[in-house]
Amino acid sequence: MAAELTGGCLCGGVRYELTEPPQSASYCHCTRCQRRSGTAASPQVRVTPGTVRFLSGEELVRWWEPPDGFPKGFCSVCGSALFSRPPGKTEPTSVRFGTLDDDPGIRPQWRQFVEYAAVWEPIPEDGLPRYPEGRP
Questions:
Q1: 49, 82, 94, 110: which one has the fewest Cβ atoms less than 10 Å from its Cβ?
Q2: CA angle, corner 46, sides to 122 and 18, nearest 5?
Q3: How many angstroms from the chain centroid is the CA of residue 57?
Q4: Burial class (CB in 10 A: 0-12, 13-18, 19+), 125
Q5: Residue boundaries of the structural domains of the chain
Q6: Do residues 132 and 114 lie in contact, with contact meaning Cβ atoms separated by under 8 Å?
Q7: pLDDT digits (tens), the chain, 136 positions
Q8: What is the CATH number of domain 5-131?
């Protein structure tokens, strides 16, 4: 990881940095991620709670809290999907790959919720472990 890994939303209103390297990375193929991202899978890095530090625009981040899943953080101006966090928590624990400015130094290590993978985009044969539901 670069000395300082930064990222932000499409409009530039939200800017953040990671104060520690990501712990892991994965692809999520669940229907919720498909609808939230408009893609077949959502690549994300897992981070330690408290290691996302806002540089600007924290007040622009809104959270959608589903009744049965992880809350999703997005920019209220441009709609960029940015983060997720465990239910009942306030700190992001997952950051969307596409919002990072530079190479995070980690690659996705597994694919989860492949039982719900989009039929219109086959999962590539990339050798990553696949889990029908969440990774155990």
A1: 49
A2: 125
A3: 18
A4: exposed
A5: 5-131
A6: yes
A7: 446 899 999 999 999 999 999 999 999 999 999 998 999 999 999 999 999 999 999 999 999 999 888 999 999 999 999 999 999 999 999 999 999 999 999 999 999 999 999 999 999 999 999 999 999 8
A8: 2.170.150.70
